[in-house]
Design brief:
- The chain has one domain.
- 35% of the residues are buried.
- It has nine helices and two strands, in the order H-H-H-H-H-H-E-E-H-H-H.
- The chain is mainly alpha-helical.
- The chain is globular and about 60 Å long.
- Keywords: Membrane, Transmembrane, Transmembrane helix.
């Protein structure tokens, strides 16, 4: 579990760094600090090997998942990552004595104390469903050649323009709405509030209906909405299930 948590945390933090630190030199400096923090956390929690593996997996993720979703690997790195974190969460339960941190760690909860490994996994999930999940959605849209209205980019495939841009420029807030929506999906799923979850997902469709209804005969907006939303929800539900499993292992 500690490997899954450190990996998701490293990837999620690195993607936030790539998105919000535009200049190369400061980005490399902060990235080095991030690597040092992950390694330090591994040393202090008696998980140096998992920490090193997490750094390697984070580097592989950055290499194969560019911010513009034009990587040749498409969204397959996300599939590989899902298999790795699922297997390590299932096969590596939370440890009773996580090194030096375990001697001072104490985080009470209504149903008992939260283990350090579970806390790391929770932090990793929260970081990953932010910008990292956005990359997965973009990669899926790019692979399917789906029109991107917010970017006024027409039809893209492999990062190349295939059709002229459409006149409409809707869905400008998707980069922010997506993470907030996934946070809510994770929280509501873990809380067992399935009725509220269904209502929220239905409300999104209602809010988007006026924009989608302008589709005409192309179906571009509907396809964009369906592909993007379904991929986003799958990532969020998978993250929620991973955390739920980690809590109960």
């Amino acid at each position: 579990m500690i490997l899954a948590g450190l990996t998701l945390a490293a990837i999620g933090a690195a993607d936030l760094l790539r998105r919000f630190v535009p200049r190369r030199a400061p980005r490399l400096l902060v990235l080095c600090v991030l690597i040092a923090l992950v390694i330090t956390a591994g040393i202090c929690s008696d998980a140096l090997v998992p920490a090193v593996i997490a750094v390697v997996l984070g580097g592989a993720w950055i290499w194969t998942m560019p911010l513009d979703a034009t990587g040749r690997a498409s969204f397959w790195p996300a599939v590989v990552l899902a298999a790795i974190v699922s297997a390590t969460t299932a096969l590596m339960p939370a440890r009773d004595a996580p090194g030096l941190i375990g001697e001072v760690w104490h985080l009470p909860a209504p149903e008992g104390e939260i283990a350090f490994d579970v806390a790391v996994l929770a932090v990793g999930v929260v970081l990953f469903v932010g910008e990292s999940a956005n990359l997965i959605v973009r990669a899926a849209l790019d692979r399917e050649g789906t029109w991107r209205p917010a970017e006024q980019g027409g039809l893209f495939r492999g990062g190349q323009l295939r059709q002229p841009p459409q006149a409409a420029t809707g869905f400008q807030g998707g980069r922010l709405i997506g993470p907030l929506e996934r946070f809510l999906v994770v929280v509501l799923t873990l809380a067992g509030a399935y009725a509220l979850l269904a209502a929220m997902l239905a409300a999104k469709g209602i809010v988007r209906f006026p924009e989608i209804s302008k589709d005409g005969e192309t179906g571009a907006r509907a396809e964009y909405f369906l592909v993007g939303s379904l991929v986003s929800w799958v990532v969020a539900l998978g993250a929620a299930f991973l955390l739920w499993w980690g809590i109960r292992v």
